[in-house]
Design brief:
It is a single chain. By secondary structure, this protein is α/β, with parallel strands linked by helices. It is 40% helix and 16% strand. The protein contains 19 helices and 14 strands. The strands form two sheets. The protein has a nine-stranded mixed sheet, sandwiched between helices. It is elongated. The N and C termini lie far apart (68 Å).
Length: 446
């Protein structure tokens, strides 16, 4: 039996080339098995059947023709050929298409394109997807801030963005992205609106790559802050509007625009592997995508039995997700002033096993004296004091008090130093004083 190309087609109703390709396939003019689809969802359903497909032929004006549909075809080994529509200004090759055909293409044009971009089906052997060549782009640092609800994760994310922006000393080099389903950053910053936001930025990346100026248009420039804000979801259920590949492209666009991106995340990381539910994985898309790329993770907890227990569970989840323990730092919000109480919380976490890898062999020996001094090595923990002025600052949409920002700044500075230099180089820098009343940063022994 002669090898043939198995091709799926997607186009608006009564598109001329749709009928032409059907005629070429049925008459034998082209060695093609052509299946017409009426919607992008039908294309996805056919791709998911497990039957090998050579290519996806889509019209440039078809509803649902975007980055995610092309990626879905590529994932099962099908190349995407796009029939150009002069009314649609879109760079299809940048979105992952293998070739673009003119709207007046003929039978030979189609077979030539298939011969170059796709492989015919041979004895039902599944075609392996060819890697997509992409132009490398500069990317900024990505910091994930994650914690259970009610521990102050959004406040810590604000403190991190403020600390980094002040350290940079230039406006617009840091972005705070609200990627939590609760989405409270627009309220805390008094933006006056929640549009544009993460949904709009993701939608804009469905059909192409945005310039830096266009990415910045999707964020709020705050009058009394040096960082920019990406507003979050307007309603919790709006997570259904985020498509995986479009969201990944949006995150890439943010990192290509800003020197540092701070992401405020939910703590639920369950995916299809844990729940056997693709919907659950898509619901937690933002956190899973960010953590897979994050340069550093701030795991946030709070003082007390409930806060420490949930922080221990979060650290365990991060480990199961595959996050390198060396990239994780813990932030205890609303921490007690007593060094002994702080050391007790670290002991509780180490006895649980959550901090054993990062605090090393002396994790079980943390004492009050350890919390009173800085030790050689890298900071892995920060304590933020209880401050009534925090809510006042959020109500007035003013910068957070320095007592909340300094411990986070010290933690990030130490983590960045560890990433760029060796431990010996950091040890040579010498100890620095720590003000326990404004929030101490504890460190591990070598």
């Amino acid at each position: 039996m002669t090898d043939r190309w198995v091709v799926l087609g997607l186009a608006p109703p009564r598109t001329a080339w749709f009928s032409d390709v059907t005629r070429w396939a049925t008459s034998g003019m082209a060695p093609v098995d052509f299946a017409k689809c009426i919607s992008a969802s039908e294309v996805r359903a056919r791709l998911a059947t497990g039957r090998p497909h050579s290519a996806l032929l889509i019209d440039g004006a078809a509803v649902g023709a975007d980055r995610d549909l092309i990626a879905a075809a590529r994932d099962v080994g099908a190349a995407t050929l796009v029939v150009d529509d002069p009314r649609v200004d879109r760079n299809w090759l940048e979105l992952g298409a293998a070739a673009v055909l003119p709207d007046t293409f003929g039978c030979d044009d189609l077979t030539d394109a298939l011969a170059v971009a796709a492989a015919p089906i041979k004895d039902s052997h599944k075609i392996e997807a060819a890697p997509l060549g992409a132009e490398p782009r500069w990317t900024g640092r990505l910091i994930a801030v994650i914690g259970r609800g009610g521990v102050g994760t959004s406040t810590v994310a604000m403190a991190a963005a403020q600390a980094l922006a002040e350290a940079e000393g230039l406006d617009g080099t840091v972005a705070l992205a609200d990627l939590s389903s609760g989405a409270s950053q627009a309220m805390y910053h008094d933006t006056g609106d929640v549009v544009p936001g993460v949904v709009e930025l993701s939608e804009a990346h469905r059909h192409g790559r945005l310039t830096r100026d266009r990415v910045r248009e999707q964020l709020f420039e705050l009058p009394n802050r040096q960082y920019h804000l990406l507003a979050g979801l307007r309603r919790r259920r709006d997570w259904t509007a985020l498509r995986p590949h479009a969201f990944s492209a949006a995150l890439e666009g943010l990192r290509a625009t800003y020197a540092t991106v701070v992401a405020d995340l939910d703590s639920n990381l369950d995916g299809e592997a844990e729940t056997a539910s693709p919907d659950t994985e898509e619901q937690h898309l933002a956190a899973r995508t960010v953590l897979a790329q994050a340069d550093h993770v701030l795991a946030v907890g709070s003082a007390g039995l409930w806060g420490v227990a949930h922080l221990a569970g979060l650290l365990d989840d991060l480990g199961r997700f595959g996050i390198d323990s060396a990239t994780i730092s813990t932030v205890i919000n609303r921490a007690p002033r007593s060094p002994a109480r702080r050391a007790e919380m670290l002991r509780a976490l180490s006895l649980d096993g959550s901090l054993g890898v990062r605090l090393g062999r002396v994790a079980h020996q943390v004492t009050a004296d350890d919390a009173n001094r800085r030790m050689s090595g890298v900071s892995t923990n920060a304590f933020l004091p209880e401050r009534h002025s925090v809510e006042a600052a959020q109500r007035a949409a003013t910068p957070l008090p320095k007592s909340m920002v300094r411990p986070v700044a010290a933690l990030l500075h130490a983590a960045e130093g560890n990433r760029r230099g060796s431990p010996a180089t950091q040890a040579a820098a010498g100890p620095e004083p720590v003000d326990l009343h404004d929030g101490a940063v504890s460190e591990e022994r070598p």
